[in-house]
# Entry
Amino acid sequence: MSGQFRLAQISDTHIRTDDAGAAAGQLKRAMEQARDYRADVILLTGDLVNDEREDEYAALAEAIENPPAPLYLMPGNHDERTLLRSRFPQHAYLPREGPLHFTIEQFPVRIVALDDVVPGETHGLLRRSGAEWLESTLSAERTRPTLIALHHPPFLTHDLLFDTIGLLDAEEFANVVSRHRQVLRVVCGHHHRVAVGQAAHAPVIVAPSTSWTYGLAMDDGQRIAPRTSERPGWMLHAWTPTGGFASHFMGL
Ligand SMILES: [Fe+2]
# Structure
């Protein structure tokens, strides 16, 4: 397969039912923009809903009824795997049991979606099982350009709060990535602000939330993660065979 490829990454939508449809409206606006930019695929990288509630997943289902491109759902720490599976049976790529790891194979860039959620916890973990899945999944296709998506940032952001609730075994994640030069990008969410880091050789892009943004708390005594006036948004990851990846913040 050749040709250009555009991935719309929409993250931390936090759909709720007590906000007069505000979060769902933001998601719909992001999808409209993704259509305008002719995205090939839309990937929602977790915290789909705000409070792990069935009615919130129903509101999400309504919001994504007519996506402008194939749309895939990943869990975050605000999601509940069983509810997610049962509410979206037509999303057959979601495994019937265990972590919701999956791959998307039909595009020029292979997408490897890693479920790093720990039920009941805010932080993420790869664990040995996740590392083994990632290693074997990447080993199956060593030459195709690959993007890994997960919910929690796998690097230190130097934010006093978020570094305690990121991917706690990020070193192991980087170890796996280091063995796979075909991994060109890692994308995640969780921090509700745009940031760039690294996992082994691969740039890591943190997408903003479509709902609200957090500030940065980097110094002792600073108030932790106040909300800021920075714009919510989403990320457009564009790729061509000769130019590689460019990742753009798209404000809402
Ligand atoms: Fe979130």
Summary: The first strand starts at residue 5 and ends at 10. The radius of gyration is 17 Å.
